[in-house]
Amino acid sequence: MLMRSNRFTLAVCILCLGIWCCGQAYNTEEAAPMEKAEQAALYSAIQGFVGNWWNGSDLYPDPCGWTPIQGVSCDIVGGLWYITALSIGPFYENSLACATNVEFRPQLFQLKHLKSLSFFNCFVSLRHPITIPGDKWEKLAGSLQSIEFRSNPGLIGQVPTSFGYLKKLQSLVLLENRLTGQVPTNIGNLTNLNRLVLAGNRFTGRIPDSFGRLKKLLILDLSRNSLSGHLPLGLGGLASLLKFDLSNNQLKGKLFARNAYLKNLTLLDVRNNKFSGGLNQPILDMHSLEELMLSCNPLGGDIMRLDWQSLQSLVVLDLSNVGLKGEIPESLSGLKRLEVSGTW
């Protein structure tokens, strides 16, 4: 009887100790302090975007604890809270909305553990446009993995060449802004990129040859710009690519050289360009293709001489206004999943 009592007492003690330890761990995380310089930098950086009326120290005295800020994420590093993600703009119902006059304050670049930086529909004033800062990005080179500027009609100017310092970057999205000029060649130095989206801007000039070094890319979207010239040969070697969109530019020449190796590509969209020289074998070797959009290019050539049997995954094929000759070949009509759009 005494032995049973002792066992029961021991079990209760172990249970209580476990609960106490879990509670201590939880409380330690909850009570972790935030570095004062980090907190001040956060408040100032946000204030630059939302306006001087915003008093972070009063509204959110504990931004990583009991008074969280919508769009701000934190993590503990060395026993202190640090900012790891900052999203400005109407992402959510209670998100931080941008002021008419915004500024990139230098304190933004003092957030030394920042991994993700996003701006959505933030820079909207055409009367008070703003440019992306040209310097200081190297201060975030040790941490930043994702940059997104989406739907900012008041964002003008060129892409900073200092983006080339951000060697840890995995995602660079500059979508539907009013950015101009040529695409910096040193973006090709960002060899950890798996997503590069520069669509819906006003970029001009050629696609940099350096893009051929981005071997980890899964998504490459350069659509809806004014890019011109021939495709760099190196693009055909981006074997990891799943989606490749070049539509609505002024690109010319043959689509791909014979050494193109895009076996994993599921979408290729080159509509509304100036590609010519007919369809060549590298396209028919893209066995994973599900969508092939070629319309409104002076491609020319004879569709009857092409063997389409290798594209068994093809669902959508747009060949309207490409200048092809001949009737639909049996190898094309034999693709069971296919929907053919347009006339050539």
From TrEMBL:
Keywords: Cell membrane, Leucine-rich repeat, Membrane, Repeat, Signal. It is found in: Cell membrane. Transmembrane segments: none annotated. SUPFAM superfamilies: L domain-like. The keyword Cell inner membrane does not apply. Residues 1-25 form the signal peptide. The keyword Disulfide bond does not apply. Pfam families: LRR_1, LRR_8. This is Leucine-rich repeat-containing N-terminal plant-type domain-containing protein. It comes from Gossypium mustelinum (Cotton).
